[in-house]
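Quick one: structure tokens for this chain, please?
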Amino acid sequence: MTRPALTLPLAVTMGDPAGIGGDILLTAYAKHRDSLPPFFAIDDPGRLGALALALKLDCSIQTISSADEVAAHFGTALPVLPVDPPLAHPATLGTPDPANAAAVIGAIDTAVRLVQSGDAAGLVTNPIHKASLQDSGFAHPGHTEYLGTLAGPGVQPVMMLASHVIRHGLRVVPVTIHLSHGAAARALTTDAIVRHGEIIAAALQQDFGIGAPRLAVAALNPHAGEDGKFGSEEEDIIAPAVAALRIKGINATGPLPADTLFHTDARAAHDAVLCMYHDQALIPLKTLDFYGGVNVTLGLPFVRTSPDHGTAFSIAGTGNARCDSFIAAVKMAAAIAETRAGA
């Protein structure tokens, strides 16, 4: 039987061992453990111990064999479950090694297994290097798609970026992600917008405890197309999607001009913004809260968050990596787990 989520620790994956995942994990634990919910790392204990010494952090490492041991050690040492399979080569900071891809993926697999078995409340994934994984034969574009596969058939994971630090907060979801602007416009469909809207509305209720979510739907073109003068996607694709969402009982508004959706008063009028392409969502989030944004995967049967940044190889091991986003990701994962447990 799955135990209540609030009694469980969070699982933190290794990410690419050549990147800043270890830096932000260790710094967050060493300097902020008293304000964080319990978590454990799935990593190489020796690697983390050596890195803590190099970073001059007061951070003892405690090797564990199961998540049940976390509560006994978290107050005095960072619990680390050895990654399986282990690293093929010792990690060189700043230089990704495709030979270590199996360990990177193994950490994700273990975290998901522990969440699914009821041994962890959720997972927080440290940044991976997609090119290194794909060079080793990894067939998925990134974390989000791989987690959807691990979750099982019929699951459609959706990427949300969120910040609760700024006034009124901000949650954004792009319908299309890593596509050129031209390809993104061609990829937009009414069905895709509707499906994303449904997943967002359900997640705002289940994960964030918002009883009647308000969803703003961004336009694709300037001035929301200016009655078709600047493009027809609003009339042909987006407006029908908004109408379909409203028929389904979802409080959706749009298509709305994107240039007026993200100022302080606008953010107070909605709980999330459904954006049409990658930068339309990420530019406002990263402008308003560059260091503290969180990547949340919606639509999964388990809780997953991640820092909203990459591996930052150029500063790995230097002590210059800020852990704000990691801390926010840990706290948000715990909050979502608590909300789900209380539903």
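The chain has two domains: 1-156+309-343, 166-288.
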